[in-house]
Design a protein that fits this description.
The structure holds three protein chains of three kinds. Chain A is mainly alpha-helical. Chain A is built from four helices and three strands; from the N terminus they run H-H-H-E-H-E-E. The radius of gyration of chain A is 22 Å and the shape is flat. Chain C is α/β, with parallel strands linked by helices. Helices cover about 40% and strands about 10% of the residues of chain C. In chain C, strands 1-3-2-4-6-5-10-11-9-7-8 form an eleven-stranded mixed beta sheet, with helices on both faces. Chain C is globular. Chain C has a domain at about 5-260 and about 445-495: Alpha-Beta Complex (Amidase signature (AS) enzymes), CATH 3.90.1300. In chain C, strand 7 (about 265-270), helix 9 (about 280-295) and strand 8 form a beta-alpha-beta unit. The chains are: A mainly alpha, B alpha+beta, C alpha/beta. At the A-B interface, helix 1, strand 1, helix 4 and strand 3 of A face strand 2, helix 2, strand 8, strand 9 and strand 15 of B. The complex binds magnesium ion and zinc ion.
C-alpha cells in the first residue's frame, strides 16, 4: 500500500487537532503513523458493505432523562479551575476570525 | 470596509433568477437543556440569569461529564417535524461535530448528521397578498446551542480588533432544532417577501406548538439565509452565500434583498461570487464577509458514543400528530373570519408577524380591533424607532399579549384615556411592569373623582369671569378655554367629555 | 498483631465488622506502607490528607451501632482517571495538573457511601493511553516484583498499589486491557465488567465506547465485593445498563466451593498465535487449563477468525474517539494554559496542547483525527466499526459452544522499563488478547495463573463470558483461584521477591 502519510498531512492534522507540532514532531509522527497506518489499514479487508457498523457494544435505545432541573454547578464551581476569569466569565485572549 | 456596489433590485431580477435556502435554529423552551439537567435560559423563566449560573458539568465539558438526552426535547422535535410535514425517522442518532471554539465547552457540538429525527417535508408560506408559496424542507434535526462570547476592547464590540473575549456557558447546551430547507426556486421578485414570510411561518408554527418562546431578539429563533443567483436560462446553480445573524423578520427580508443586489452587481461586472458566510449588520443594513469556507471545515462527524439511537414508538408519533395545531394557512383563514378584519387590516397583522400576538391578546379578553390597533399601531411604531436606533426589536418583543389586553381593559373601564394609555405602554415597553404597575407607579389614572374636577372647574370659572358670561349667554364653544385649563390642572389625567359635562353644569348654576 | 496490609479486603472487613480492628488502624497501616514503599513503586500520584479523618468517621458510626456496608472502613486506591472532589484528578497528564473536580465520579461516590476510605489517586499512562504506565506525565510506576520492570498499563498504579500491599482494593479503568494486563504482570486480580455494568460518569473519557471501570484486587472475592459497591444503573450515564445485577461477591463465594469447574466448557481460541507469546506464559496458561480439566472442566477448541483484526480496529476506534474526547483540554475552562504573547486564542490552544500532552497522546490524537477526517472515515473508522460487528459474531458463535473463553491475559510477562517505549506498534500488540472484550462489550477477568519458568514473573489467565454474565466470571475465577492456591500452598504474591526486602528502611 502506497503511503498516504506525509509531513504536510501531519501538519494539517495538527491544525485540525489544535496541536502546535514542531518540525521535529511532524517528522517523527510522519514516520510512526506511516508504520501504524500500514498495520491498521487491514480492517478494510473484512469490512464488506453487507456488514453493519457497531458504534455501541451493547445495543440500547431511547435512553432519556425527565425534563427536570438538577446537577447545577454554582458559579464558583464553574470558575474554580479557570485559567483566567473576569466578570463571572472565562477570559480568553483575542479570537481569530469570525463568530460561528 | 469598502462599500458594496449594489444593482437596482428590479434590474437584478431581470438578469438573474434568485435561489434561496434557509437554516433556521429554534431554541426549545424546555425546563432543562438538551443533554444536561441545568435550567434552560431559552425558557423565559430563566432568561435573566447571571453569567455561568445555568451550567451543569456537561455544558462546560468538564472531565468525566456525560450527556443524557432530554425526553421533552425529543417530543418537541418530533412535533415540530410533524408540523413541517416531515417524516419522522424510525431511528435517528446523534453525532459529534468536531471543531474548536471557545464557546463550545467540549470542542464538539452534539448534533445529528446522517440520521436526523425528521426529514422530507414542506410548509406552505402565505405572502401578504394571499399567494401561497410551498417551501420544501430537507430535514429538521436536534442539536445543542453554544455558549455566548462577549468581545471586549475593540471599538465596536465585534470580534475584529477585540482585546479579549469573555465566555458564558449558560446558553451552552440549550436544545435546538435546526430546520434546513431544500433550494427554493421561482420566488423571483418576491424572494425577500418569501424569506420574511418563511421565518414568520416557522415562528407561527413553533408558537402554536408552544415549544419555543420564539423571541428573535433573544436569539430563540435565528435564521441563516442562503442566496444564489443564476443568469436567466442557466440550469446550473450559482455560487451561494450564507448570511448569518439575521435576528429579526424584517432583517431577513432586507438581507435577502441586499444579497441579491450585491451579487447581481458582481456578476454583471463579470466577477465571481465567493462561497462564504456573511454577517448581517442590523445597524447599517449590509452584509460583510466572514471566514471563507476552507478545508479546515472538516468536522470529522462520527456517531456520538455517549448517546443511544432515538427510536420513537409509532404510537407516540401518532399521538403527537393528533395533537398538532391547525396548519398556519388554515389558521389564518379562520382568524381573519373570526376577527372580521378587512384584507388590508389582516395583512397588516400578518406582515408584522403579529398573528400570534393578536390571537393571544384577543384570548386574554381584548376586542380584535383593539388588539390589532395596539400591535400594528403603537407597538410597531416603537419597534421601528428602536430599529432606527440600531437596537432592532420587534413589536412582539416589546410587550406580552396579556399586558396589551390589560391595557385595553383599563381604557374600556375608563381608568385610562387613549392618550394616557400610550404613556402607560411606554412604561410597559421600558420594563416597568404590567400596565397596572405602571399606572400605580407613574400615577397615571384618569381622575374620575367629580369632587376634584368640580373644584378645578370652579377655580377656572372664577378666574375667567368673561368666559363664564359667554357660556351663560349660550356660547357653548367658549367652554373650551375652561376645559383646557382644567385638563392642564389635572395634568391630562381627566376624561375631557366628563369635564365638558361638568363645566356646562357648573356654569348654569 | 497481624500485618493489616497483608489481609485481603474480605478478611480485613471481617475484622472491622467484629471491631477487632478499627478503620483508623487499617488506614494508618496502609498509609505507613505507602510511606515506606511508594518512593520505590510510585503507585500514587496523590495520597489523601483526609484518609484518617474519613476512617475515624466510619469508626464513630460503627461504634454508634449504625449498620454499615460489607466494605465499610476498608481503604481504597483510586485510579487518577476518576474525578474526585477532595483530591486532584489529572488522568496522568500535565495538562490537568492540580485539577479539582466539582463532582465525584459515580463509582467514587458509591464507594464513599459504602464507607470505603479513599487513600489516594494512582498513577497511570497519560489519559490511559499505554500498557506500561511509562507514559504518565508524572514518571513511571515500577513493578513490585522487579523495580526495573513495568507494572502494566494504563492502570499500573492501581495494580502495583494492591500488589505492593499499599491498598487492599483499587479502582481501575479498562479500555483495551488497562485493568487486566496490569493484573497479569503484577500477580493480581483485575475485572473489566460488561460495558454498561459500571457507570462511566466521572471517568475522564478515553474512548467512550470501550471504556469501563472495574475492580483491581488481590483476590477474586475482593473484586466481587468491590464490584457490588460500584456497579449498577446510573442515570448520569446513558450507556449504563438498567437491569438488576446479582451479587458478585456471592458468585465468588459460590465459585470458591469448587463445583463451578465441574462440566464447565472452557473455550480456547485456535487462531490465537503461539508466536509472540512468551514460552513461560503459554506454559502457565496450559497448566491452568490442565488444573481446570482435572477438576471437571472440558476444554473446547473454538474459532474466532476475526480476533486478528481486533488490534487494528481498536487502534482506529480508540484514537478517533479519544481525539474528540480530549478536545476539551484547550486552556479555556480548566487545566494548563500556555500564554502566547500577541497570539490569538487559537495559538494559545495549540501551544497549550503541544506542551500539555505527551508524545503518545499526541500520536493518538493525530491518528484519530486522520481516521475521522473527510475522505478517510469509511476506510478507517467505518471499517473498524464493522470489525466490531464481526468480533461480536465470533463471540456469539463461540458462546453457543462454551461457557467461558480462556486466554493468557497478555503475551509476555512484565518487560523492562524503556524496552518498548520507542516502538508504539510493539506496545500496541500487548493488548492482543484483551482488546476483543472491549470491542464487543463482554466482561473479562484476569487472575494469576502462576509464574513464568524463565523469569519467575507472574502470569495471568483471562476468562471472557457473554455480555451481562459477569457473575459467571466470578464463579469460574474464584474456583480456579481456589484450586491454584491449594496447589501453591498460599497466594502467589507471597513469592514476590522485592516485597519483603522493601521495608521502612529504604
Ligand atoms: Mg448549519
Ligand atoms: Zn446548527
Amino acid at each position: 500500500m502506497v503511503s498516504e502519510i506525509t509531513p504536510d498531512l501531519v501538519r494539517h492534522l495538527g491544525v485540525l487537532a489544535r496541536i502546535q507540532l514542531s518540525d521535529e514532531e511532524v517528522e517523527r509522527l510522519t514516520g510512526q503513523l506511516d508504520v501504524i497506518v500500514d498495520n491498521i489499514a487491514k480492517v478494510s479487508e473484512v469490512a464488506t458493505p453487507d456488514i453493519a457498523a457497531t458504534s455501541h457494544p451493547i445495543a440500547l435505545q431511547n435512553v432519556f432523562r425527565p425534563d427536570e432541573v438538577g446537577d447545577l454547578l454554582t458559579p464558583a464551581q464553574v470558575l474554580q479551575n479557570a485559567p483566567e476569569a473576569a466578570d463571572g466569565r472565562f477570559r480568553v485572549t483575542a479570537i481569530l476570525g469570525e463568530e460561528q | 470596509m469598502a462599500k458594496d456596489a449594489l444593482m437596482d433590485f428590479d434590474k437584478a431580477l431581470e438578469l438573474f433568477e434568485p435561489v434561496l435556502g434557509f437554516e433556521v435554529h429554534v431554541e426549545l423552551n424546555t425546563e432543562t437543556k438538551m443533554f444536561s439537567a441545568a435550567a434552560n435560559p431559552a425558557n423565559s423563566a430563566n432568561h435573566a440569569a447571571g453569567p455561568n449560573t445555568l451550567v451543569a458539568p456537561v455544558d462546560m465539558g468538564l472531565p468525566g461529564a456525560l450527556p443524557v438526552v432530554n425526553e421533552t426535547a425529543v417530543r418537541y422535535s418530533i412535533s415540530l417535524g410533524l408540523a413541517l410535514g416531515c417524516s419522522i425517522a424510525p431511528s435517528s442518532r446523534f453525532a459529534r461535530k468536531n471543531y474548536f471554539y471557545p464557546d463550545l465547552g467540549k470542542n464538539y457540538q452534539i448534533s445529528q448528521y446522517d440520521e436526523p429525527i425528521a426529514f422530507e417535508g414542506h410548509v406552505d408560506v402565505e405572502l401578504a397578498d394571499g399567494t401561497i408559496v410551498p417551501v420544501p424542507i430537507e430535514r429538521a434535526h436536534m442539536e445543542e446551542d453554544a455558549g455566548k462570547l462577549t468581545h471586549v476592547g475593540g471599538a465596536t464590540g465585534r470580534i475584529q480588533g477585540a482585546e479579549y473575549s469573555l465566555v458564558d456557558y449558560n446558553r451552552a447546551g440549550v436544545p435546538l432544532v435546526e430546520i434546513v430547507t431544500k433550494p427554493i426556486y421561482g420566488t423571483e421578485h418576491r424572494a425577500p417577501d418569501v424569506a420574511k414570510a418563511y421565518v414568520q411561518t416557522i415562528r407561527d408554527i413553533v408558537l402554536s406548538l408552544g415549544i419555543s418562546d420564539a423571541r428573535m431578539e433573544r436569539g430563540n429563533l435565528r435564521c441563516d439565509a442562503n442566496v444564489s443567483l443564476r443568469p436567466r436560462g442557466q440550469e446550473k446553480l450559482g455560487t451561494r452565500t450564507e448570511t448569518k445573524n439575521v435576528n429579526s423578520m424584517r432583517s431577513v427580508e432586507r438581507a435577502v434583498r441586499y444579497e441579491i443586489q450585491r451579487q447581481a452587481a458582481i456578476l454583471a461586472a463579470g466577477g465571481k461570487i465567493t462561497q462564504e458566510t456573511r454577517h448581517w449588520h442590523e445597524d447599517t443594513g449590509t452584509t460583510s464577509p466572514g471566514r471563507p469556507k476552507s478545508d479546515a471545515d472538516d468536522y470529522r462527524y462520527f456517531p456520538e458514543p455517549d448517546l443511544l439511537p432515538v427510536v420513537p414508538a409509532p404510537e407516540l408519533i401518532e399521538q403527537l400528530r393528533g395533537a398538532l395545531p391547525e396548519p398556519p394557512a388554515a389558521r389564518r383563514r379562520r382568524l381573519k373570519a373570526e376577527w372580521g378584519f378587512t384584507d388590508l387590516e389582516f395583512q397588516d397583522v400578518v406582515n408584522g408577524g403579529l398573528l400570534a400576538e393578536v390571537e393571544a391578546t384577543v384570548a386574554a379578553g381584548a376586542a380584535p380591533a383593539s388588539a390589532r390597533k395596539w400591535w400594528t399601531g403603537e407597538l410597531t411604531r416603537i419597534a421601528n424607532a428602536t430599529s432606527a436606533e440600531g437596537t432592532g426589536r420587534e413589536a412582539s418583543d416589546l410587550a406580552t399579549p396579556a399586558q396589551v389586553a390589560e391595557l385595553q381593559l383599563l381604557i374600556d373601564e375608563g381608568t385610562l384615556t387613549d392618550k394616557l394609555a400610550r404613556q402607560v405602554l411606554e412604561g410597559v415597553v421600558a420594563g416597568e411592569g404590567s400596565p397596572k404597575d405602571v399606572v400605580a407607579a407613574r400615577g397615571l389614572a384618569v381622575v374620575s373623582d367629580d369632587g376634584a374636577l368640580i373644584a378645578a372647574i370652579d377655580e377656572a370659572l372664577a378666574s375667567q369671569p368673561d368666559v363664564l358670561e359667554k357660556i351663560r349667554d349660550g356660547k357653548v364653544q367658549a367652554a373650551g378655554a375652561i376645559i383646557g385649563a382644567v385638563m392642564k390642572a389635572m395634568k391630562g389625567q381627566a376624561d375631557a367629555a366628563r369635564v365638558r359635562e361638568l363645566v356646562l353644569e357648573r356654569a348654569a348654576q | 498483631m497481624t500485618d493489616l496490609t497483608k489481609l485481603s479486603a474480605a478478611a480485613l472487613a471481617d475484622k472491622l465488622a467484629s471491631r477487632e480492628v478499627s478503620s483508623v488502624e487499617a488506614t494508618r497501616a496502609h498509609l505507613d506502607r505507602i510511606a515506606a514503599v511508594d518512593g520505590d513503586i510510585h503507585a500514587f500520584l496523590h495520597v489523601s490528607e483526609r484518609a484518617l479523618d474519613v476512617a475515624a468517621g466510619i469508626d464513630t458510626r460503627r461504634a454508634a451501632g449504625e449498620q454499615l456496608g460489607p466494605l465499610a472502613g476498608v481503604p481504597l486506591a483510586i485510579k487518577d482517571v476518576l474525578v474526585t472532589t477532595d483530591m486532584p484528578s489529572t488522568s496522568g497528564s500535565k495538562i490537568l495538573e492540580g485539577y479539582m473536580s466539582p463532582f465525584d465520579a459515580t463509582v467514587v461516590a458509591r464507594a464513599r457511601v459504602a464507607g470505603l476510605v479513599p487513600l489516594g489517586k494512582t498513577n497511570m499512562d497519560e489519559f490511559a493511553m499505554g500498557s506500561s504506565t511509562e507514559h504518565s506525565a508524572y514518571g513511571p510506576t515500577r513493578n513490585p516484583w522487579d523495580l526495573e520492570r513495568i507494572p502494566g498499563g494504563s492502570g499500573g498504579g492501581s495494580a502495583a498499589a494492591v500488589a505492593a500491599f499499599e491498598a487492599p482494593l483499587a479502582l481501575g479503568s479498562d479500555t483495551g486491557g488497562s485493568i487486566r494486563q496490569p493484573a497479569h504482570v503484577t500477580g493480581t486480580v483485575g475485572m473489566k465488567p460488561t460495558y454498561g455494568g459500571v457507570s462511566r460518569y466521572g471517568a475522564i473519557a478515553l474512548a467512550s465506547s470501550l471504556d469501563q471501570v472495574g475492580p483491581v484486587t488481590r483476590t477474586v472475592l475482593d473484586a466481587g465485593l468491590l464490584h457490588d459497591v460500584i456497579g449498577g444503573h446510573d442515570p448520569h450515564d446513558s450507556t449504563s445498563l438498567a437491569e438488576a445485577w446479582p451479587s458478585f461477591a456471592a458468585a465468588a463465594r459460590e465459585g470458591a466451593t469448587g463445583d463451578a469447574l465441574k462440566g464447565l466448557r472452557v473455550g480456547v481460541i485456535k487462531e490465537l498465535p503461539d508466536s509472540g507469546f512468551q514460552a513461560g506464559v503459554s506454559e502457565s496458561f496450559r497448566a491452568a487449563l490442565d488444573a481446570m480439566q482435572a477438576h471437571g472442566a472440558e476444554i473446547v477448541e473454538i474459532s474466532a477468525p476475526h480476533f486478528e483484526y481486533g488490534v487494528a480496529a481498536y487502534y482506529l476506534v480508540l484514537p478517533a474517539e479519544a481525539s474528540s474526547n480530549l478536545a476539551k483540554f484547550d486552556s479555556v475552562r480548566f487545566g494548563m494554559r500556555v500564554d502566547v504573547p500577541g497570539g490569538t486564542v487559537e495559538d494559545v490552544m495549540a501551544a497549550t496542547r503541544d506542551a500539555g500532552f505527551g508524545d503518545e497522546v499526541k500520536r493518538r490524537i493525530i491518528l484519530g483525527t486522520y481516521a475521522l477526517s473527510a475522505g478517510y472515515y469509511d476506510a478507517y473508522y467505518g471499517s473498524a466499526q464493522k470489525v466490531r460487528t464481526l468480533i461480536q459474531r465470533d463471540f456469539d458463535e463461540a458462546f453457543a459452544q462454551v461457557d467461558v473463553i480462556a486466554t493468557p491475559s497478555a503475551p509476555t510477562t512484565a518487560f523492562k522499563l524503556g524496552e518498548k517505549i520507542d516502538d508504539p506498534l510493539q506496545m500496541y500488540l500487548n493488548d492482543v488478547t484483551t482488546i476483543p472484550a472491549n470491542l464487543a462489550g463482554v466482561p473479562g477477568i484476569s487472575i494469576p495463573s502462576g509464574l513464568a519458568a524463565e523469569d519467575g514473573l507472574p502470569v495471568g489467565i483471562q476468562f471472557l463470558a457473554p455480555a451481562r454474565e459477569d457473575a459467571r466470571l466470578y464463579r469460574v475465577g474464584a474456583a480456579l483461584e481456589a484450586v491454584l492456591l491449594d496447589e501453591w500452598g498460599g497466594p502467589l504474591l507471597d513469592r514476590a521477591p522485592m516485597l519483603d526486602s522493601m521495608g521502612g528502611a529504604r
